[in-house]
Sequence to fold (772 residues):
Amino acid sequence: MQAAGVHIHLWGVTQGVGFRPHLKRLADRLGLLGRVWNAPDGVHVELLANQRVAENWLNDLLEQPPRGAYISGYKLEVGHYPVSKVFSIEESQFGSASTTLLPPDVAICPECRAELQDPTNRRFAYPFITCTYCGPRYSIINAFPYDRVRTSMHAFEPCSSCEQEYLDPQNRRFHSQTNSCSECGPRLSLESELEPDEQDAIQQVAAWLKAGRIGAVKGVAGYLLLCDATNAETIQRLRSRKQRPTKPLAVMYPKLAAIGPELEVSTAAKEALLSAVAPIVLLPIQSAVASPLALEALAPGLGEIGLMLPAAPLLQLISTACDRPLVATSANISGSPILARAEEVKNNLSGVADFFLHHDREILLPQDDSVVRFSRNKQRPIWLRRARGLAPIYPTDCSGKSDGQSLLAFGSDLKHSFCIRQAGNTFISPYLGDLSVYESQERAAACLLHLLSTSAGLPHQLIADAHPAYHSTALAQELSDREGLRLKTIQHHHAHFGAVLAEHRIAEPAEDILGVIWDGTGYGIDGQIWGGEFLGWKNGEVERRAHLKYFPQLIGDKMSREPRLSALSLLVGNPLGERTLRPYFTELEWKYYQSLLAQATSLQTSSMGRLFDAVAALLGLADRSAFEGEAAMLLEQVARQHEQSQSPYPDMDIPWPVDNLLDTTSWLGLLLEEHHTGQILGLTALKFHRQCIGIIEAVARQQPYTRIAFSGGVWQNSLLVDLADRYLCQDYQLLFHRELSPNDENISYGQLALAKLQALSPAELSTTSTIF
Fold:
């Protein structure tokens, strides 16, 4: 028997977030009959109601979706459907093509945290407590539709108590696919050559950590290395074993209230720490306040500490048992991806960790923690890494309309991500590391294969970076050749520009937009190494309007690891510069590099990233970098210290000519002369940052720009963002990344956005307001 009703199809992040239980509660509250079920293409609902009632019900859902849900599109059809006496949740239906978006892993929710700490609750101290609204998702999903059998939780058969919760519409764990307890869920196992003195694994781990030991603990999306953050000796031992001499280490506190006054927690930082993402947040250090943290061991020479709160119940229990801040860093050898399987952790880290805490819930898609900092002036979020809790992310057209295009963008090699658009949905993979590392190549290939297998199959077109030697480009070419797919290449900095424009939903602006795209390296259209670029956007095309004047690129990528080479290249022939730099080189090195500079080299660079390196070297902050960006971070720190201690800001009296070539050599010479005449180090560093904004002002004055967009790794510098806000916001609308990182993680999204735009006709461009 059938009755008149409405069929509603919803897609987006609609599975793994308690969507069906939410719909049932919404229908029961209004006394509506029908059914709901999962399918590979989203969630389907049949309501035995007239169209007006169904539309009102749908509007309520769109205005208040369940936590973690993201509805990217829907379709409503009137018809006749089977009569039912209740609103029921039906068995999932299967199909060959999936257009459902993978939900991210969600940090432990307040309700589960309260139960975890309640001695009267049956899940008291249970390290794998979850509910409909929190717990692992992305890291454990095999395929859609999302049911327990297609996750790594399928190995754990629910006990009768958990099954009863699963079937109870009034329970928070109603249809929770990750539901478990100490009777039926995952198990911990402790492995070490150390002699244990505690029966409970959590208490033993806490005892070892407090005694100065280093442990590898399996979290939601990979293993973390933990140790006492107040013990400088232990931290240095970790650095030595992990081959990470100076790169900052993140710290985990058991709760927000435990953070001491030596760390400045802004409102924006607090919200991020307590969010469902629970990222690492960079917090400024109040140097005048004493701290129990071993600050210099944690972040040598820097003024910020990366801080996180426990995202997983297991980490919450360990952190609480230790009752002190803990170092919490990815379990790997520097440069390699985070490890997620017991055997690979033991094989790779047996000389790093003193003990291992495993569990038997398999991690299918490993990922690092997300990292964010905030600008001091306007508290703009600056994402340094987007992974656990955010991956995949979905900057998409909220109309949910499919244009029929199926695209796959391969991104860049450094800070690699890829981006897929299918059936009106767009999603970006998590941060996948540096593809110059073989292990990262394997991890990226496995992640891509998994996402393609859970989606609608192979795309129609591939997009890659124009760099002919990139591994990501070679991978795209290989797939193109094998499957007969179209391949389009897009210049690196054009993609950066496209990413920030797409994030602001700009397809065809009414007026020209200036793009300030500053980073370390990108293969230019002219075959040179770009990086200090001013681009224009008009009529759907990107134009290079100005750039830093080229200087010699020495020894390929070695220049990015040795700031002394950037300084030498920029100040060749400057006597004061050469005298300053001479102590950084051996006699043999000096002769070799002088001979290189005397030759007519064909490879040149306009890199702003290398300019930052050069200034750091000239000021004696770093002649070599132990990790990417170290020199620029040290330069930002000394400039920030001076900015906080002095007022007003320094005036700039170096006029820039109206030219498309911005010659920084003479400017560097003047900065060096001032520094050598006794000018305060911090003032020189601050002047450099201020002059970078002066360069933007000079270029922007050449045309009647009203908007300026910023992208590229240099814009991870929060002082530079603050100065842009201070000096440019009165005359220009400033467009910064909000959801994406300014670094190369956004390249894949920019590639996809530009490929879409360039496929449109001028008429389509002028009439399309949101196409991303």
